[in-house]
Amino acid sequence: xxxxxxxxxxxxxxxxxxxxxxxxxxxxxxxxxxxxxxxxxxxxxxxxxxxxxxxxxxxxxxxxxxxxxxxxxxxxxxxxxxxxxxxxxxxxxxxxxxxxxxxxxxxxxxxxxxxxxxxxxxxxxxxxxxxxxxxxxxxxxxxxxxxxxxxxxxxxxxxxxxxxxxxxxxxxxxxxxxxxxxxxxxxxxxxxxxxxxxxxxxxxxxxxxxxxxxxxxxxxxxxxxxxxxxxxxxxxxxxxxxxxxxxxxxxxxxxxxxxxxxxxxxxxxxxxxxxxxxxxxxxxxxxxxxxxxxxxxxxxxxxxxxxxxxxxxxxxxxxxxxxxxxxxxxxxxxxxxxxxxxxxxxxxxxxxxxxxxxxxxxxxxxxxxxxxxxxxxxxxxxxxxxxxxxxxxxxxxxxxxxxxxxxxxxxxxxxxxxxxxxxxxxxxxxxxxxxxxxxxxxxxxxxxxxxxxxxxxxxxxxxxxxxxxxxxxxxxxxxxxxxxxxxxxxxxxxxxxxxxxxxxxxxxxxxxxxxxxxxxxxxxxxxxxxxxxxxxxxxxxxxxxxxxxxxxxxx
Length: 555
Prior knowledge:
Elements: E1 8-13, E2 16-21, E3 28-30, H1 32-37, E4 74-75, E5 81-82, H2 92-103, H3 107-110, H4 113-119, H5 122-149, H6 156-164, H7 166-197, H8 208-228, H9 230-260, H10 278-292, H11 308-337, H12 340-345, H13 349-357, H14 364-393, E6 403-405, H15 412-426, H16 431-434, H17 439-459, H18 472-491, H19 493-504, H20 506-515, H21 523-540, E7 542-544, H22 549-552
Parallel strand pairs: 1-4
Antiparallel strand pairs: 1-2, 2-3, 4-5, 6-7
């Protein structure tokens, strides 16, 4: 039967794995296939691992109570006791790189004009960029408290699950799985492809098919890197975060030099022509906040952070001021060189800026944009795969997705699933239009998770909280989130309603796949899942995992 039914400890002995049941079964020698598909079920099925291993038993998902107990362990050759789980390999520097790398995408290079379109002046646009940064700091600090209180990976999904239960958490997971994560990654990959080939097509658009193939190759390469080792993924993240920050620092220094040379005429009467209409200001702020999104990246991998009580809030505290200052200073540099009309008419503001000040080295900016996209895509793959991993572990997705490679300790099935979903969306020609559907749901679920913070403060006042903020932080953020949910409903009603419909489409899936007992589900579903699980376990050399017992005790 599938490994999802196994409860055992193991000792690696050469090419064999010896199993010991927590129910007291004797040790038996089994190869991977035998170990992977026979074991103990909660219904008391056969326990002899030496029986035929070629038959495929009916698939039956594991309940949370049936998963590996805290006492179960993986006994390695050196005799150390370690649970079969994702390893804590993300350091403070890695965490800062993940947050900064995911927040700073291609937007600040390509289209920072979203705020300027609605504010209509340099002065007001810079004020709105600053307000957006402060607001994002509030949200990030709330997530720092949530991440140190609820020490599960999965970010808002885990927090909503803990606060409001399974149904709403599943809907949040469903929207991410169906559209948010694959669409976002497809768009980042396409943007990467467009800019990496732009120097070869300076006077025309690059070929459509070539860009899509390069985007697919990029997605597959980064998926392979993250499947190989967590450390490989974090090193790629560190390198490309340093590269994009360096490129932005060069732009900032160039702007400051221009200001010192007396090029400050664009800031004279900088608030002239400003639009103080509440609707325009709302849309300008919404655009700024979209550029700041990504501050929750580290909360998706909480269980893999070294000393999360210290490093999670510290990484957030360091990253948020860095990004806010970089965004404001980069816009000042743009505004120093380019007038309002030039910014609004440019399809890629950083490229236009480079054409005017870098001369023959202007080709470096498209490459910097590509590097920025590459790093952002890596962070997104790392985060979204952990979301699917945790969703599976909580019983909301097939058990296969909560398995990890027995030697590399990476969630290979979840990473491959994420890659396949993104490749599907890369085949959609109008994939850019799909991003309009989830602005409403994104802020709704972020706000709901922080509302859960307030609810847990009331429901469990004595719960250990290594970091405890003033209650004013979540209250202010929740009030502002209501505004962010209403704005797209008002300004983009049709797309927002489509996004709501996509979320609600998860209701029948929840009923059939989560609420309904496995014995009452259509049998062909169980058979398909059983076949897929069995073959993927063999292909990926993976086993079921569980939370760190020491972390589980805190919950």
